[in-house]
Structures are given as structure tokens and as C-alpha cells.
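Slide 14.
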Amino acid sequence: MKEIDNAPTQDGARGGGLGQADALLRRLEWTVIRRLDGLLQGDYRTLFRGFGLDFADLREYLPGDDVRYMDWNVTARLQVPHVREFQEDREVAAWFLLDLSGSVDFGSGDIRKRALLSDFTGVMGRLLTGHGNRVGGMLYSGGSDVRPAVLPARTGRRHLLHLLDRMHGTAAALRGETRLRDLLEHARGVLKRRSVVFVVSDFISEPGWEMPLGMLSRQHEVIAVRLSDPLEMAWPDFGMVVLEDAETGDQLLVDTNDSGFRERFSAAAAEREAALRRTFARSGVDCLTLTTADRMDLALLDFARRRKRR
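Slide 15: predicted structure.
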């Protein structure tokens, strides 16, 4: 939903050529990527687990080792804790499933969710391609009559710029509710090799996407990157406002001075939040939440540290 009378504006919401994509990436390199890469000390892979692991060797357990790699048979036989070591496939194919539907154009302040999506794709894509990995993208504009555009996974800065440029040039569908299920099912048909998959969305969608998300996570390592805005959780007293659904165009006059309305809205938002957490847990998908009110680099660092501790 968007507030018609006070809809914020923001540069960069839609396309402008490779020059705009290059300017975005340079800004992110100076403001986020250098700091993030330094704080991670090169261990950018803590943002996702490794895969394509081959058994390499056994060694005695050392404090701090991941207990998931304990070899209990050898430990019982030798009476000394042992862990398995693996040789990891260093090349990663990462895919960005980008929800560019109308609801991501919302933002209650200077930043919109679409800008979060753009910045996250630029930061993570730059970290990945900077280490020689390949990135690809699927761009979904919303609605049910348009198939997601697919950009094959390749490496290099120029390819990342092409992905960002295509993303900036993809406008939301004029009408029609988001069907996130279509994007996830399309990904299942396209992605043949095991990959890291970032589903970047606000997850405001028609029901039915939960099962395809779980099926996708059985084949790939899936990370849900949820875009959020504080106004989606609680409403202040704005007085009488006209709301418009960004995807269907339906309008509604709301009295936000009514404390009962604000309480019901907050309760419904909390219930939706809990339902999303349950869905991600059932699907075996970790969720990184990015909000328009917080710094993205701090959210990424916190996410990496939480995954590393597991």
C-alpha cells in the first residue's frame, strides 16, 4: 500500500543505462563493500554455507570446530574426538531472484524497498564476482502474464553491471497481484546445477509460494532476503489518508487517528511476521531482513555471524 498524498520519491528507481549501474556500483564500493569486505576479513563465504564438499581427511577435534563434522564412529573407536575435513568446491554460482513488483516501490522515508533490493544485489554481486564466482539473475515484474527475464550466470564486473542495468530498467507490472510462486517455479526449471539462491522480495504475494520455496531449497542453498519498511509494522497517527494498493490500484480511505485501527493493523502485521518465520523454518531457509530504516552492512554482518555460530 502507498499513501497517495505523501508518496516519497527517490532517484534511481528505474533505468538509465550502464552509466547509472556503474555509478551505483562505485557508490556501493566506497560506502559499503570496502567496509564490509574488511570486517569479514575476506571470509565472505560465511554469508552462505559451502557445498560441493568432498571428504579430505580426519583429524583430532580442536576447540571451536563445528560439531556437525564430528565423526562419531572414529571417536568411539579411538576414544578421542575426531572431525572430518572437506575439500570445498571454490567456485560458486549465485542467482538473484528479484521481485520487482509494485509493492517494492514503497518506502515511508527517503529509501524505498526497491533501493534496498538494488543495493543488496550490487553489494553481494560485487563480493561474489570479486572472488571469481558467477552470478545470474531472474527479474520478475509482477502479474501473471509475464515470464521472469533470465540473465545467465557469468563472472566479471561488466556482467554485474549488465544485471544491475537490466534490473533498473525493469518496471513493475501496471496491474496484477504478485505471484511469487511463478518466479520460484521458473527458477526450479532453469537452475540445474546446485547454486546459492537469493530470493529478494518483500514476500507480499498471493498464497501458494511456500511449497515451491521449500522444493527449491531441497536442490539449492536458498536465502530469503526480506525487504521491509517500518510503516508496514505499525502506523502513527496521520489523520485521514487515502491508501492505494500499488499492484491492483484499489483505494481505501482510512482514519489513522482511530487507535483501534492502529492496534488491529499492528496485530495483523505481527501475525504475518510470525507466519513468515514459520514458513522459512519449515522450508529450511534462512532469512536476512533488510529494512529501509537500518544500515545494510550491519544487517549483513549480523547475518554472517549468526550463520557462522551454527
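Speaker note: The two ends are 37 Å apart (CA to CA).
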